[in-house]
Amino acid sequence: MAVAYMHRAGFIGLDIRAALKEGLARLRAADVPSHTLAAELLLMHALGRDRVWLYTHSEDPLDPDAAEKYGALIARRATGEPTQYITGKQEFWGLEFEVTPAVLIPRPETEHVVEVALERLGASGIKLDMATGEPSPALRVADVGTGSGCLAVSLAHELPHGEIFATDISA
Predict the structure, then answer these.
(1) Which domains does the chain carry?
(2) 49-81, pLDDT tens digit by residue?
(3) Are 16 and 67 in contact (CB under 8 A)?
(4) 18 closest CA partner among 60, 46, 75, 74
(5) Any bridge partners for residue 164, and if so which?
């Protein structure tokens, strides 16, 4: 791909819809997987807005600073840097997690681990013993090598009365 094609200034003077289309075209030309999603996420990140705002303000002009930032983000993604590392976030189990190159990006299929854990915990995940009405013994779960913490935090979200321990070699 020609360097001139990736020049960031190409987004200045565009409205939000046109900028999104241009970002999408640049990522598609760079053979980026899920280029539509990446272009949307990067534009939302550059603007500090959510998807609803993006589409309800599609005819608004893109601020020159945001245009420059979006161009830089698109250029980074086009070189292969993961969207999650660029934005610093990834959704997992309906929660938003901070991610950096120091941790693995939480993958959607890893949510199955949370499902299996909740299924296997069964009644021990319930705060009260359903037969007696007495408090259940404290539930303890350990996530060793937690990385982003997505498993531990998701389980803590689902089991707020449990004791969830997460540990990792990296701070």
Answers:
(1) 3-87 (1.10.8.10), 90-167 (3.40.50.150)
(2) 999 999 999 999 999 999 999 999 999 999 999
(3) no
(4) 60
(5) 141
